[in-house]
Amino acid sequence: MSDVKQQLLDAALIHVAFDGWSDATYHAAVKDTEIDADAARLACPRGAVDLAIAYHTIGDEAMLERYAREDLSDLRYSEKITALVRFRLEVVTDKEAVRRGTTLFALPHQAADGAKLIWGTCDAIWAALGDTSTDSNWYTKRATLSAVYSSTVLFWLGDFSKDHADTWAFLERRIDDVMRFEKVKAQVNASPVLKPLLAGPKWALSFLKAPSSEPRHDLPGRWSKPT
Questions:
Q1: Is 51 exposed, middle or buried, given 0-12, 13-18 or 19+ CB atoms closer than 10 A?
Q2: Read out DSSP for 22-52?
Q3: Would you say the pTM of this structure is higher than 0.90?
Q4: Which end of the chain is more exposed for a tag (fewer CB within 10 A), N or C?
Q5: Cβ(19)–Cβ(25) below 8 Å
Q6: Which pLDDT tens digit goes with each residue over 45-74?
Q7: What is d(CA 84, CA 122) in angstroms, rounded to the nearest whole number?
Q8: How far apart are CA 216 and CA 207, in angstroms?
């Protein structure tokens, strides 16, 4: 993240609780930092939306930093997933900023950005756990975790229990639901009666591949991660 965007974000957080991730917040941040308006717009072409995205991205980075410090070697795989989702929420220092962000990305014209952020968080979790899937499982894992993560965030926002104990219980129930589904799926795949019925769908899904992490060199220009 550029220094200009970081300064704007730090200044904006003071105003988010009152004005949300809005134009008013963005302009107040520019005024408070005394950053040139053109430089601010260059760093954040969409104003407060870009600041809200940056705030979410910082949370993902903090989650991964905590994961790198923790020893989860004794946990089962499902418990590691639970731990990472919990880490992601526990690194939040401003719950109201997340609440306002949820409101922002629920708007129809911002929904795509919101879905992309949730997907990015879940992709970071799977990558941290060493997921190597390259077929349709790459998508189903992230889609399933996205549903768990987003529902947990909404529960967490309304949770006033001590140390968010109710949220962590809710999260564990959702992960247990996913594990039961995976168990049923494995049983269906092993069934001599039901397995043939899945041959067609499996054949179609075999053409679905995870996006390549390597840049394409046969196209003009290049994609780069925004700062």
A1: buried
A2: SHHHHHHHHHHHT--HHHHHHH-TTTHHHHH
A3: no
A4: C
A5: yes
A6: 999 999 999 999 999 999 999 999 999 999
A7: 9
A8: 20
